[in-house]
Design brief:
Largest sheet: 8 strands, antiparallel, barrel
Structural class: mainly beta
Order of helices and strands: EEHHEEEEEEEE
Strand content: over 45%
Radius of gyration: 18 Å
Helix content: under 10%
Shape: elongated
Number of helices: 2
Number of domains: 2
Strand order of the largest sheet: 3-4-5-6-7-8-9-10
Length: about 180
């Protein structure tokens, strides 16, 4: 039985033993926050800021690697606006994955861990910074969390030889939390 991507029942029980949680809800961190245990950033980092992302996940129909007659939707890139708590656009999120703020700072990160969304949306993610640019708000980012996702899942059908190369844009939203050291 799989509880979350990459987490089997036995490894979930190990997390329970280590984390002191006795339920699946414990995996999602209900005791202190809603961040799943395996997605928590390093304890040496603190949350720098939080934004809301809204836009699309872009998928392309392509031949499945190593399988001649099988096709699948593959994520090409996100394309989203980032808004602060007041609803003002402060940046954008695009391929890389990259987050770019209007102050000129940018974070490019790699997925470190993922957990299936409790709402059947795109997964929740922990990403580790590969590179930052600029001296703005994102300059000290070490980790990025994608949480509270809505939508964004690849279509279940419609990808076949006749649609090879076709792109679809699936609406989504998410909360992005940036962790690191404060400048």
């Amino acid at each position: 039985m799989r509880i979350a991507h990459g987490v089997t029942t036995l490894s979930a029980l190990a997390l329970v033993a280590v984390g002191g949680c006795a339920t699946v809800e414990g995996l999602y961190g209900k005791s202190s926050s809603d961040i799943p245990f395996i997605l928590r950033p390093p304890t040496s980092e603190s949350r720098i800021l939080e934004v809301q992302g809204a836009g699309v996940q872009i998928y392309a129909c392509s031949q499945k690697a190593g399988q001649v007659a099988t096709y699948e939707w593959t994520l090409s890139a996100p394309d989203a606006q980032l808004k602060d708590a007041s609803g003002h656009v402060v940046g954008r999120h695009f391929a890389g994955p990259t987050w770019q703020f209007d102050d000129g700072s940018t974070v490019i990160a790699d997925v470190t861990a993922r957990v299936d969304s409790p709402t059947k949306s795109i997964p929740w993610l922990l990403l580790t910074t590969r590179r930052t640019t600029g001296s703005g708000k994102l300059a000290a980012t070490g980790s990025v969390l994608r949480l509270h996702t809505v939508g964004g899942v690849a279509p279940a059908e419609g990808c076949d030889a006749a649609n090879a190369g076709k792109e679809v844009r699936v609406p989504y939203s998410a909360t992005y939390e940036f962790y690191g050291t404060r400048l």
